[in-house]
Design a protein that fits this description.
By secondary structure, the protein is an alpha/beta fold.
């Protein structure tokens, strides 16, 4: 694993904290350092959300000293719901225990951090599911290292408002922090060679994380498939139409998940980190359509896209890679929509490119891709949409 990626990974972990710290520090100015509510999605469906605390029944937690302890994860769903104007929008950072844990971990004033809890989404917690005879496609999301389940809520709300259901997993011990329903937490487990005693240990931790992440996805799918009475939203899901996408390390998770589970019919990636995927997995390729949106180049890790090319050459289905100009790694997360330009100037791996353009490109491309592959809506296709944006370079396959 390259030093450049470790720097990027540390940036991913600290990114939300940097924004919050700047927003709440003594030099804060309401006009200069500002956080915004999430932008409105384009669709007509009201959006409900709910969180579940699940324990794998047949998978041991690889990061717990009690070796017989089963793995535990938090999963959040977003779904079409019945409008209820009396409800208040779900808050982006609504977990006070997580805020307290972040304060203790990074030695930042709890009083300052609590101000981040005011950011509003367009979703409503435990909204009554929409009454509809038609079922909706399911899209699963996997976050990056040190990321979190809600990190791409902008894309989730866009999809759900247009007739999808989205499920996002907090991959325990690889998320920034995972808060369980009883108040306990799972911390982020570092795979920095300097912290874990060398490259061999770091590689083992990375591999264990991938194994655990793929197991999380399989458990989610099994739950939806075989426990349909668990919650009413499960009966809203069309299990014949399942897609998945991820960001960074979540793209590696997505690729390995589709290789092992044929229930996933289409996949997408946002600035994927391909480097940790073993060569035998790259040579195996993928058998379903794959849309990738990413930076024009990974300047500090030129091998990353070379490994994507290996995957593409060995895949039975098309891999369409659309490089986007003037964007950086964090632009593919919600931070690009939440932070003011002044904050962006101080945060690594985040550009000052117009946030409306970034949101529009990502949302339109993902929505079009999943419409084509899961809803069989062929017009427009992703190439036609991509041609509408000067920021997108010509697709390479």
């Amino acid at each position: 694993m390259s030093r450049s990626y470790h720097n990027l990974k540390l940036g991913i972990i600290s990114f939300p904290l940097v924004i919050i710290f700047l927003f709440t520090s003594g030099c804060y100015n309401r006009e200069i350092f500002h956080l915004y509510d999430l932008p409105k999605p384009s669709g007509s469906h009201s959006i409900g959300t709910i969180q579940f605390d699940w324990v794998h029944t047949n998978f041991v937690n690889l990061f717990d000293p009690e070796t017989d302890k089963k793995r535990r994860i938090m999963v959040q769903f977003w779904y079409p719901g019945q409008i209820n104007e009396k409800l208040e929008p779900f808050l982006y950072s609504n977990d006070s225990i997580v805020v307290k844990a972040l304060s203790e971990e990074y030695n930042i004033s709890l009083k300052l951090l609590k101000k981040s809890e005011k950011i509003k989404t367009n979703s409503y917690y435990d909204l009554v599911p929409e009454v509809n005879e038609d079922q909706y496609p399911l899209i699963i999301f996997s976050h990056g290292k040190g990321g979190y389940a809600k990190q791409n809520t902008v894309q989730f709300e866009e999809l759900v408002s247009n007739g999808y259901i989205v499920a996002s997993i907090d991959h325990s011990y690889d998320a920034l922090i995972t808060l369980f329903s009883d108040g306990s937490t799972a911390p982020y487990v570092s795979d920095n060679p300097k912290k874990v005693g060398g490259k061999i240990n770091a590689d083992k931790i990375t591999n264990d994380k991938l194994i655990s992440r793929v197991a999380d996805v399989k458990y989610l799918l099994d739950k939806v498939w075989f426990d349909t009475d668990y919650h009413p939203i499960f009966r809203m899901i069309d299990t014949a139409r399942v897609g998945m996408f991820g960001h960074s390390f979540g793209v590696a998770t997505t690729i390995l998940s589709v290789q092992e589970d044929n229930r996933i019919k289409a996949i997408a990636g946002l600035d994927g980190w391909f480097e940790p995927i073993a060569i035998e997995k790259l040579n195996k390729g993928v058998h379903v359509p794959f849309l990738h949106l990413g930076q024009k180049e990974w300047r500090f890790n030129p091998m990353n896209y070379k490994k994507m090319d290996i995957l593409s050459k060995n895949s039975l289905a098309p891999i369409d890679h659309y490089p986007i100009k003037r964007v950086q790694h964090f632009d593919f997360m919600d931070g690009s929509q939440l932070a003011s330009t002044s904050i962006k100037l101080l945060v690594p791996h985040l550009s000052t490119t117009n946030k409306y353009h970034i949101k529009t490109i990502i949302n339109r491309m993902l929505f079009t891709f999943f419409n084509t592959e899961l809803k069989r809506i062929s017009t427009p296709n992703t190439k036609e949409v991509a041609n509408q944006f000067k920021m997108i370079s010509q697709s390479s396959k």
